[in-house]
Amino acid sequence: MRKFKTESKKLLDLMINSIYTNREIFLRELISNASDAVDKLYFKSLTDSKVEISKDDLAILVSFDKDARTITVSDNGIGMDKDDLDRNLGTIAHSDSLEFKSENAETQGEDIDIIGQFGVGFYSAFMVASKVKVVSRAYGADAAYSWESDGVEGYTVKEAERASHGTDVILTLKEDTDEENYDSYLSEYKLKSLIKRYSNYVRYPVQMEVEKTRELPKPEDADDDYKPEFEHYRELDTINSMIPIWKRPKSEVTQEEYNEFYKSDFHDFSDPVRTITVHAEGSFSYDALLFVPGRVPFDLYSKDYKKGLALYSSNVLIMEKCEELVPDYFNFVRGVVDSQDLTLNISRETLQHNSQLRAIAKRIEKKIKSDLADMRDTDREGYEKFFENFGRGIKYGIYSSYGMKKDELADLLLFYSAKQDKMITLDEYASAMPEGQESIFYAAGDSVERLAKMPIVSTVLDKGYDVLLCTEDVDEFCMTAMADFAVADADDPDSLTAYPLKNVAGGNLGLETEEEKEAAEAVAKENEDLFSAMKEALGDKVAKVAVSTRLSGSPVALTAEGPISLEMERVLSGAPGNDDVKSERVLEVNAEHPIFETLKAAQDAGDADKVRLYTDILYNQALLVEGMPIDDPVEYAQAVAKLMV
Ligand SMILES: Nc1ncnc2c1ncn2[C@@H]1O[C@H](COP(=O)(O)OP(=O)(O)OP(=O)(O)O)[C@@H](O)[C@H]1O
C-alpha cells in the first residue's frame, strides 16, 4: 500500500470533516470530474486527428447497487494511466485539471469548460464512502488500473480490467449512524434529484438506468372485460437538461421556454410577468436570467422567506440562493447567475471575493430597475398588478434606507390619486399640478373610500390640488423617509425642483392666504378662554385646540403636529411594545361652522358643563372620521343621547 503524504493526510481529514457543510455534494464533484475527463478527450479530438471519437457518444453514467451498497459514476472520457492515478488521486490538492486549463487556455474555445481547479473534489467521496475504488483506462492505453483507498492511511494501485477508455468511480457507502442515513443515497429518486439539482447543466448527458412502466399490448383474443396489463422495464434516461437556457441567445429562446424553465426550476404554477436577461462580457463575464413572479409567493412576508439568486459556476450549481445578488426591496426576483470567472473557495460553497458578487449585484439591480420602469411605461395594467404584489417591498426599501434609496426607487412607486381616480406615479402627480402648487399632498388611512370623504382631503381637493390616498401601512413611513420628490423643470431638464411631500392631516400645509391666517389668529385671540376651556376638557388627549384654516364643511378635525401622524400611531400601536408611540394631536376647530357659535354662546353664558360635553362629542366625532377608536363608546353614546331628549 502506498501511503498518503503526511500533509495530504491532514488535508484529507480536514476535507472530509470540515471543508464541506453538505455531504450530498459528493455526487456533484464526481460528475464534474467525469465531465472534465470527457471534455479533455473531446478537446484532444479537436487538436489531434488520430483521436477518433464522436461527441454524441460521450456521456456520464450514474448507477447504484442496493445490496452491495455502492454508487458508481462512470465516464468514457480521457481516463488515467497508472502514473495519473498515483499523481492525481494520491496527492491531495493536485489538480491536473487546473494544469490542463492553464496549458490550453489559448486553444480551448467555448466548447471546453473545465470545472476542476483545486484538486480536492474527488476526496469529498470519503464523506459518504468507507471505500473508494477507481477503475480507469487512459485513452489509447491497452491496460486498465484500479486505485483503491479507505481514505485514511493510503491507497493501492493495481492492474485491472476495463473494456475501453474512461473511468469508473465506485463508492462503497459508510454504515448508517444515528445522525446520518447513508443508505438514503441508494435510491433512484434521490440520485436523480441530486443530479438535477447540482449537475442539471453539465454539458454532457448524465444518464441513469431508471425503472419505467408500460402497458402491454392488448391480446387479440381479449374479451370485453379485459383489464390493461402493465410491465416494468428498465431504460437508460438522460437526467440532466444540459444546455442552460440562460446561455442561449435571447433571440433563440421563446417566452414559452422561459416560462417553463421558471415554473419548473422555481416551483411556481403561474408564468412570470417579466423575464430579464443580462449578458456581461469582458474580463469578468457572466450571464443572468431573472424573473419577476406573477404572484406573491405564499411565504414572501414570512421569516422563512429567503431571497437570492441561484449561482452557477461553469454550469455547476454553487449556491441555491445567493442573497448578496439582490437587494431586499427586489427580494421577489428569482433567477440564476452563471459565471466562469468566479473565484470560488475550495468547497465551491462560497466565493473568495465578494467584490465580484457586488459588481454583479449592482448591474443586476440596475437592470431590474430599468426593466420595471419599462413595464411601468409600456404595460401599465401589468405594472399595476406587479405593484400590488410587490410594491410594498419597494416602499419598505425607501423607508428602511432612511430615504437614501429614493433616487433609485421613487419613480417606481404608484399611489392612488383622489383627483384622477386611479394609480399614478409621483411624476404624473407633479406634471398635473396647477400653477402655484408647492407641495405634493397625501392622506393616509385604511381605505380609499374613507380617505376620499375626509374633510381635510376635501379641503385640499377644493383648492384644485390632488391628494394621494395611501392605504398601506408602510406608505406614510415611506413618504416621511422620502421627505420630498424632485422633478426636472420642463424648460431646463438639468434643474430640479424638490416638492415636499405633505400629509394633509399633518402640521402646516401652507395652503392658507395671509388674510386667512390673520383672520384665524384674530379668532383665536378673541376666543382664548373658549379654546383653553376646550383644551382643559380634553386634557392629555390633545396637545392643543386651535382654529383651523383648512376646514370647510365640518366643525372639527384631528390633525397631528410633529413627526408622528395619527395614521403612524395607529400602525405602530398594532405592534407590541409600541404603547408609548403617540402623535401630538391637534383638535382643529372650524370657526365658520355654526357649531362654533353654539360653543361660543355656552362659553359666554358660563356653561362650563356644556362646553365640556360638546368638546368631548366633537373630539370623538373627529376620531371616528379618522377611523380611530374612541376611548369610551358608551359615554359617547350617552352624551349624544342626552342631546336628543
Ligand atoms: N473521472 C476522472 N477521469 C479522469 N481524471 C480524473 C477523474 N476524476 C479525477 N481525475 C483527475 O484527478 C484530479 C483530481 O481530482 P479532484 O476532483 O480532486 O480535483 P479537481 O477536479 O482537479 O479540482 P476540484 O477540487 O476543483 O474539483 C483531477 O484534476 C483529474 O486530473
UniProtKB/TrEMBL annotation:
Its main location: cytoplasm. Keywords: ATP-binding, Chaperone, Cytoplasm, Nucleotide-binding, Stress response. Residues 571-645 are annotated as: C. Coiled coil: none annotated. Gene3D superfamilies: 3.30.230.80, 3.40.50.11260, Heat shock protein 90, C-terminal domain, Histidine kinase-like ATPase, C-terminal domain. Molecular chaperone. Has ATPase activity. Belongs to the heat shock protein 90 family. This is Chaperone protein HtpG. It comes from Raoultibacter timonensis.
